[in-house]
Amino acid sequence: MEGRQAVRELLVAGRRQVRDVLVAAAPDDQDAADLVELARQVGATVRRVSRAELERTARTERPQGVVARAVPLPEVDFEALMQPSRGVDPFLLVLDGITDPQNLGAILRSAECAGVTGVVLPRHRAVHVTPAVTKAAAGAVEHVAMALVGGVPAALADLREHDVWVVGMDAGGDVDLADLPAGDGPIALVLGAEGRGLSRLARQRCDALVAIPMLGQLASLNVSVAAALGCFEVARRRLAAGMPRTSTA
Predict the structure, then answer these.
(1) What is the pTM of this model?
(2) What is the pLDDT of residues 205-217, one digit of tens each?
(3) CB–CB of 118/92 below 8 Å?
Protein backbone atom coordinates (compact mmCIF):
# COMPACT_ATOMS: atom_id res chain seq x y z
CA MET A 1 0.00 0.00 0.00
CA GLU A 2 1.42 3.35 -1.05
CA GLY A 3 0.16 6.88 -0.66
CA ARG A 4 -1.07 8.50 2.53
CA GLN A 5 -4.81 8.11 1.99
CA ALA A 6 -4.49 4.46 0.98
CA VAL A 7 -2.32 3.67 4.02
CA ARG A 8 -4.64 5.58 6.34
CA GLU A 9 -7.65 3.54 5.19
CA LEU A 10 -5.64 0.33 5.53
CA LEU A 11 -4.92 1.17 9.17
CA VAL A 12 -8.41 2.42 10.02
CA ALA A 13 -10.36 -0.39 8.34
CA GLY A 14 -8.66 -3.13 10.32
CA ARG A 15 -9.60 -5.66 7.67
CA ARG A 16 -6.17 -7.29 7.45
CA GLN A 17 -2.93 -7.48 9.39
CA VAL A 18 -0.42 -4.70 8.72
CA ARG A 19 3.13 -5.97 8.95
CA ASP A 20 5.07 -2.72 8.88
CA VAL A 21 4.89 0.90 7.81
CA LEU A 22 7.86 2.68 6.28
CA VAL A 23 7.91 6.45 6.68
CA ALA A 24 10.21 9.02 5.10
CA ALA A 25 8.98 12.40 6.28
CA ALA A 26 10.19 15.40 8.23
CA PRO A 27 9.68 15.26 12.01
CA ASP A 28 7.27 18.20 11.87
CA ASP A 29 5.05 16.55 9.23
CA GLN A 30 1.84 16.22 11.26
CA ASP A 31 0.01 14.12 8.70
CA ALA A 32 2.85 11.57 8.70
CA ALA A 33 2.93 11.68 12.50
CA ASP A 34 -0.78 10.82 12.59
CA LEU A 35 -0.16 7.81 10.35
CA VAL A 36 2.67 6.66 12.61
CA GLU A 37 0.35 6.87 15.63
CA LEU A 38 -2.36 4.89 13.81
CA ALA A 39 0.18 2.25 12.83
CA ARG A 40 1.35 1.85 16.41
CA GLN A 41 -2.24 1.56 17.63
CA VAL A 42 -2.84 -1.47 15.38
CA GLY A 43 0.44 -3.08 16.40
CA ALA A 44 2.33 -2.51 13.15
CA THR A 45 6.08 -2.01 13.17
CA VAL A 46 7.03 1.55 12.17
CA ARG A 47 10.35 2.16 10.46
CA ARG A 48 11.77 5.60 9.79
CA VAL A 49 13.75 5.34 6.55
CA SER A 50 15.48 7.67 4.14
CA ARG A 51 13.56 8.91 1.15
CA ALA A 52 15.95 6.99 -1.11
CA GLU A 53 15.23 3.71 0.72
CA LEU A 54 11.50 4.28 0.62
CA GLU A 55 11.57 4.99 -3.11
CA ARG A 56 13.55 1.79 -3.69
CA THR A 57 10.84 -0.13 -1.85
CA ALA A 58 7.91 1.60 -3.55
CA ARG A 59 6.28 0.17 -6.67
CA THR A 60 4.66 3.45 -7.77
CA GLU A 61 5.85 6.95 -8.44
CA ARG A 62 5.42 9.51 -5.66
CA PRO A 63 4.42 7.25 -2.73
CA GLN A 64 4.02 10.44 -0.64
CA GLY A 65 6.59 9.37 1.91
CA VAL A 66 4.81 6.28 3.20
CA VAL A 67 4.65 2.59 2.27
CA ALA A 68 2.79 -0.10 4.23
CA ARG A 69 3.11 -3.85 3.87
CA ALA A 70 0.16 -6.04 4.82
CA VAL A 71 -1.21 -9.53 4.30
CA PRO A 72 -3.23 -9.92 1.07
CA LEU A 73 -6.84 -8.83 0.87
CA PRO A 74 -9.33 -11.60 1.63
CA GLU A 75 -11.06 -12.91 -1.47
CA VAL A 76 -14.85 -12.89 -1.16
CA ASP A 77 -16.97 -15.76 -2.46
CA PHE A 78 -18.99 -14.77 -5.52
CA GLU A 79 -22.08 -16.53 -4.16
CA ALA A 80 -21.98 -14.31 -1.08
CA LEU A 81 -22.05 -11.16 -3.19
CA MET A 82 -25.36 -12.22 -4.74
CA GLN A 83 -27.09 -12.25 -1.34
CA PRO A 84 -28.53 -9.23 0.53
CA SER A 85 -26.08 -7.77 3.05
CA ARG A 86 -27.38 -6.18 6.25
CA GLY A 87 -30.79 -5.87 4.68
CA VAL A 88 -29.46 -4.17 1.53
CA ASP A 89 -30.05 -5.72 -1.91
CA PRO A 90 -26.94 -6.48 -3.96
CA PHE A 91 -25.52 -3.54 -5.89
CA LEU A 92 -22.68 -5.05 -7.89
CA LEU A 93 -20.17 -3.88 -10.43
CA VAL A 94 -18.91 -6.47 -12.93
CA LEU A 95 -15.76 -5.48 -14.80
CA ASP A 96 -15.27 -7.32 -18.08
CA GLY A 97 -11.50 -7.23 -18.57
CA ILE A 98 -10.25 -3.88 -17.26
CA THR A 99 -6.47 -3.85 -17.76
CA ASP A 100 -5.34 -0.36 -16.66
CA PRO A 101 -4.48 -0.12 -12.92
CA GLN A 102 -5.38 3.57 -12.81
CA ASN A 103 -8.80 2.84 -14.27
CA LEU A 104 -9.48 0.01 -11.84
CA GLY A 105 -8.38 2.14 -8.89
CA ALA A 106 -10.59 5.04 -9.94
CA ILE A 107 -13.54 2.67 -10.49
CA LEU A 108 -13.14 1.13 -7.04
CA ARG A 109 -13.03 4.58 -5.45
CA SER A 110 -16.27 5.64 -7.18
CA ALA A 111 -17.88 2.29 -6.41
CA GLU A 112 -17.18 2.57 -2.69
CA CYS A 113 -18.47 6.14 -2.53
CA ALA A 114 -21.66 5.15 -4.39
CA GLY A 115 -22.42 2.26 -2.03
CA VAL A 116 -21.56 -0.65 -4.31
CA THR A 117 -21.77 -3.84 -2.25
CA GLY A 118 -19.38 -5.90 -4.34
CA VAL A 119 -17.10 -5.89 -7.38
CA VAL A 120 -16.63 -8.90 -9.66
CA LEU A 121 -13.39 -9.33 -11.62
CA PRO A 122 -12.36 -12.04 -14.09
CA ARG A 123 -9.52 -14.18 -12.83
CA HIS A 124 -7.61 -13.97 -16.13
CA ARG A 125 -6.72 -11.25 -18.64
CA ALA A 126 -7.56 -8.39 -16.29
CA VAL A 127 -5.75 -6.26 -13.74
CA HIS A 128 -6.24 -7.18 -10.08
CA VAL A 129 -5.25 -5.30 -6.92
CA THR A 130 -1.71 -3.95 -7.26
CA PRO A 131 0.14 -1.11 -5.50
CA ALA A 132 -0.85 1.21 -8.37
CA VAL A 133 -4.50 0.18 -8.01
CA THR A 134 -4.54 0.66 -4.25
CA LYS A 135 -3.01 4.11 -4.54
CA ALA A 136 -5.47 5.23 -7.24
CA ALA A 137 -8.34 3.79 -5.20
CA ALA A 138 -7.32 5.96 -2.20
CA GLY A 139 -8.14 3.21 0.28
CA ALA A 140 -11.37 1.96 -1.31
CA VAL A 141 -9.92 -1.55 -1.61
CA GLU A 142 -10.22 -1.86 2.18
CA HIS A 143 -13.99 -1.35 2.08
CA VAL A 144 -15.23 -2.94 -1.17
CA ALA A 145 -15.80 -6.69 -1.29
CA MET A 146 -14.21 -8.22 -4.40
CA ALA A 147 -14.67 -11.65 -5.96
CA LEU A 148 -12.77 -13.32 -8.77
CA VAL A 149 -14.65 -15.48 -11.30
CA GLY A 150 -13.50 -17.81 -14.02
CA GLY A 151 -15.48 -16.03 -16.72
CA VAL A 152 -17.72 -12.97 -16.84
CA PRO A 153 -20.47 -14.42 -19.11
CA ALA A 154 -20.99 -17.39 -16.77
CA ALA A 155 -21.04 -15.05 -13.78
CA LEU A 156 -23.72 -12.92 -15.45
CA ALA A 157 -25.83 -16.02 -16.02
CA ASP A 158 -25.51 -16.89 -12.33
CA LEU A 159 -26.57 -13.37 -11.35
CA ARG A 160 -29.69 -13.62 -13.46
CA GLU A 161 -30.55 -16.96 -11.87
CA HIS A 162 -30.35 -15.22 -8.49
CA ASP A 163 -32.80 -12.53 -9.66
CA VAL A 164 -30.13 -9.84 -9.95
CA TRP A 165 -30.95 -7.44 -12.80
CA VAL A 166 -27.92 -7.37 -15.11
CA VAL A 167 -27.39 -4.05 -16.89
CA GLY A 168 -24.59 -3.55 -19.39
CA MET A 169 -23.22 -0.08 -20.04
CA ASP A 170 -22.64 0.16 -23.76
CA ALA A 171 -22.46 3.02 -26.25
CA GLY A 172 -24.88 1.11 -28.47
CA GLY A 173 -27.42 0.56 -25.70
CA ASP A 174 -31.05 1.26 -26.51
CA VAL A 175 -31.94 2.61 -23.03
CA ASP A 176 -30.81 6.01 -21.72
CA LEU A 177 -28.91 5.89 -18.42
CA ALA A 178 -31.50 8.27 -16.95
CA ASP A 179 -34.13 5.60 -17.64
CA LEU A 180 -32.09 2.85 -16.01
CA PRO A 181 -34.49 -0.02 -15.20
CA ALA A 182 -34.74 -1.58 -11.74
CA GLY A 183 -32.11 0.65 -10.20
CA ASP A 184 -33.65 0.35 -6.75
CA GLY A 185 -33.56 -3.48 -6.60
CA PRO A 186 -30.84 -6.13 -6.85
CA ILE A 187 -28.67 -4.92 -9.73
CA ALA A 188 -25.31 -5.51 -11.40
CA LEU A 189 -23.74 -2.94 -13.69
CA VAL A 190 -21.41 -4.45 -16.29
CA LEU A 191 -18.60 -2.46 -17.88
CA GLY A 192 -16.29 -3.61 -20.64
CA ALA A 193 -12.59 -3.27 -21.19
CA GLU A 194 -10.86 -0.14 -22.36
CA GLY A 195 -11.25 0.26 -26.10
CA ARG A 196 -13.30 -2.81 -27.04
CA GLY A 197 -16.07 -2.38 -24.45
CA LEU A 198 -18.30 -5.30 -23.51
CA SER A 199 -17.46 -8.66 -25.02
CA ARG A 200 -20.07 -10.24 -27.28
CA LEU A 201 -20.98 -12.95 -24.77
CA ALA A 202 -21.21 -10.50 -21.88
CA ARG A 203 -23.49 -8.25 -23.94
CA GLN A 204 -25.75 -11.20 -24.73
CA ARG A 205 -26.09 -12.12 -21.04
CA CYS A 206 -27.31 -8.67 -20.00
CA ASP A 207 -31.00 -8.00 -19.29
CA ALA A 208 -30.64 -4.48 -20.66
CA LEU A 209 -28.02 -2.27 -22.30
CA VAL A 210 -27.89 1.36 -21.26
CA ALA A 211 -26.04 4.22 -22.92
CA ILE A 212 -24.78 7.51 -21.53
CA PRO A 213 -26.16 10.40 -23.62
CA MET A 214 -23.29 12.07 -25.50
CA LEU A 215 -23.68 15.68 -26.65
CA GLY A 216 -20.16 16.41 -27.85
CA GLN A 217 -18.06 15.26 -30.76
CA LEU A 218 -16.31 12.36 -29.03
CA ALA A 219 -18.00 8.97 -29.11
CA SER A 220 -17.00 7.55 -25.73
CA LEU A 221 -15.88 8.21 -22.17
CA ASN A 222 -13.06 6.74 -20.16
CA VAL A 223 -14.34 3.54 -18.51
CA SER A 224 -13.74 4.90 -15.01
CA VAL A 225 -15.89 7.96 -15.78
CA ALA A 226 -18.63 5.78 -17.26
CA ALA A 227 -18.52 3.59 -14.16
CA ALA A 228 -18.87 6.61 -11.88
CA LEU A 229 -21.89 7.90 -13.80
CA GLY A 230 -23.58 4.50 -13.74
CA CYS A 231 -22.84 3.89 -10.05
CA PHE A 232 -24.20 7.22 -8.92
CA GLU A 233 -27.33 6.88 -11.05
CA VAL A 234 -28.05 3.64 -9.21
CA ALA A 235 -27.19 5.32 -5.89
CA ARG A 236 -29.61 8.15 -6.66
CA ARG A 237 -32.42 5.71 -7.36
CA ARG A 238 -31.73 3.67 -4.25
CA LEU A 239 -31.73 6.76 -2.04
CA ALA A 240 -34.95 8.00 -3.66
CA ALA A 241 -36.53 4.61 -2.88
CA GLY A 242 -35.62 5.00 0.78
CA MET A 243 -32.92 2.33 0.81
CA PRO A 244 -30.34 2.70 3.61
CA ARG A 245 -26.92 4.06 2.84
CA THR A 246 -24.19 1.43 2.79
CA SER A 247 -21.31 3.87 3.29
CA THR A 248 -19.42 3.62 6.58
CA ALA A 249 -18.19 7.21 6.33
Answers:
(1) 0.90
(2) 999 999 999 888 8
(3) yes
